[in-house]
Automatic annotation (TrEMBL):
PANTHER family: SET DOMAIN-CONTAINING PROTEIN, UNCHARACTERIZED PUTATIVE METHYLTRANSFERASE
Signal sequence interval, chain numbering: none
InterPro entries, per database record: SET_dom (IPR001214), SET_dom_sf (IPR046341), SETD3_SETD6_MTase (IPR050600)
Naturally occurring in which organism (per UniProt): Trypanosoma vivax (strain Y486)
Residue stretches making up the SET domain: 27-259
Lineage per the UniProt record: Eukaryota, Discoba, Euglenozoa, Kinetoplastea, Metakinetoplastina
GO molecular function, one term: protein-lysine N-methyltransferase activity
Protein's name according to its UniProt entry: SET domain-containing protein
């Protein structure tokens, strides 16, 4: 029990099961079709006009924290009593219970879902790959600063596994010991992360939703279908539908977009990365990375810090910058710069305006995080998101130093991967790590070049400090 994923990916078997669950599969669309580079995909058999419903899944045949069908899934009663606040964990536990139940009506779908072995969730097997520290000639660095490490922390594997164990020990009839293992937990967590949908427009019922049939489409940055929610009244049940956003050709693969979420998140959640995803990558500075990097600069007694800031002050400033709108909950993002960089003119004019604003925000944040208390208190009450700090020589060097430290952190993780990921079963995750780190290093190099280029074209103080 539990080894069901990817064991029967027959399109006929899935179609029979889908019909019983009132999941609509368009008759002129082929599902679970082998592809050369994308596993299984969805293809048109005939040309389809714009607006065609390719596939739809009713709410009753979805898996989410909001369903109430205990006869269909006995574990729901136990989960309802627990009232878990973590919706992702709720769905993971639901999948685990179905995977170990021989009579589960969800098994045909689970057997059609691919096995996902290339996750990074087994911390004990990966050693210090994501948290090693090292003192380099330019300062202290940590592997926890890389894109991959930041997104892996967001998944909170350790915390979720500890909570899952408490639930399973309380209700062994649904999660029997010896079958509901950590390996199965990782498999189900990977499945939820890679196949879930969200309804951001519905407060309190955002998701995640697992939608059999709808989840079979592959990703493309140029999707040809869109998600629509139809029905929802007393007479017409809620249906999650994929709708053709343009006319579809015969034998054309049907794609939806998983979003512009960056290479590291694709590697962690979907276990694949494409060239198009790399082109739309983003460099992230999470709040904990900003905090840790500045603390390291303080400990290293960097002469680029005009004021020795305490750890408590750093954390307090992070919160205030979040309230001011200078930082998101997830931190700070800088989109990938074009390669090669445009030449001529100021950097703000030579790169897309959105990216130029993101770069400027990096300067703003680094200045506000390191300035003296009096200046910080004055600025925090007088500026807004349109404020732009003057890029003094010291500040430019500080940002360059931060980027250099990130480069060293990525190289540290590359070196660790060569030492740790040596087994045959590590090949897939090692490749994902290499692609992710290469993209990160390229983004850092482009950003460093852009800052040097931009520093040669000074702005006026009046323009930069305009509110």
């Amino acid at each position: 029990m539990g080894d069901c994923f990817g064991t029967d990916q027959s399109s006929q078997a899935f179609a029979i099961w889908a019909k019983k669950r009132d999941i609509f599969l368009h008759p002129d669309v082929a599902f679970l079709v082998p592809t050369k580079t994308m596993g299984l995909g969805v293809f048109t058999r005939k040309p389809l006009p714009e607006g065609t419903v390719v596939v739809s899944c009713p709410f009753k045949s979805s898996i989410s924290p909001y369903g109430d069908f205990p006869l269909d899934s006995p574990c729901i009663s136990a989960l309802a009593k627990l009232r878990l606040k973590d919706n992702v964990l709720h769905v993971v536990l639901r999948l685990m219970a179905e995977a170990v139940r021989p009579s589960s009506p969800w098994l045909p779908w689970l057997r059609a879902c691919p096995h996902m072995p290339d996750h990074f969730f087994n911390g004990s097997a990966l050693g210090n790959l994501f948290d090693a520290r090292e003192v380099t000639p330019i300062g202290s660095v940590s592997a926890s600063w890389t894109e991959l490490s930041q997104h892996l922390r967001d998944v909170e594997v350790k915390r979720r596994w500890e909570e899952a164990q408490e639930v399973m020990q309380r209700y062994p009839e649904h999660w029997p010991q010896g079958h509901a293992t950590f390996a199965l937990f990782c498999e189900c967590l990977a499945l939820v992360l890679s196949r879930n949908f969200h309804r951001e427009e519905v407060h309190g019922r955002e998701g995640p939703y697992l939608l059999p049939g709808v989840d079979l489409t592959n990703h493309s940055c140029t999707a040809n279908v869109r998600m629509e929610l139809r029905g929802g009244g007393r007479k017409n049940p809620t249906n999650f539908c994929l709708i053709a956003s343009r006319a579809l050709r015969q034998r054309e693969q049907i794609f939806c977009s998983y979003g512009k979420i960056g290479v590291a998140r694709f590697a962690i959640e979907f276990q694949f990365v494409t060239e198009d995803v790399v082109k739309e990558d983003t460099l992230r500075f999470s709040t904990d990375v900003i905090t840790d990097m500045i603390e390291c600069l303080v400990k290293d007694a960097s002469d680029l810090l005009p004021y020795k800031i305490s750890s408590d002050t750093i954390r307090a400033r992070i919160e205030r910058l979040q309230r001011l709108g200078f930082l998101f909950d997830e931190g700070l993002f800088v989109s990938r710069l074009p390669s090669p960089l445009p030449s001529g003119g100021s950097g703000g004019d030579a790169v897309p305006s959105v990216v130029a604003k993101e770069v400027q925000m990096l300067f703003n944040v680094m200045y506000l995080m390191t300035t003296n208390p009096e200046e910080f208190e004055h600025l925090i009450h007088t500026i807004n998101r349109d404020w732009r700090v003057e890029r003094t020589g010291r500040l430019v060097k500080l940002v360059e130093k931060v980027l250099m430290l990130r480069v060293e952190a990525a190289r540290l993780q590359q070196s660790l991967a060569e030492q740790i990921l040596t087994k045959a079963e590590d090949a897939g995750r090692k490749k994902l790590l290499q692609v992710t780190l290469n993209s990160e290093l390229e983004m850092l190099q482009l950003l460093q070049e852009h800052i040097v280029q931009d520093a040669s074209v000074p702005f006026s103080r009046g323009e930069l400090n305009h509110v």
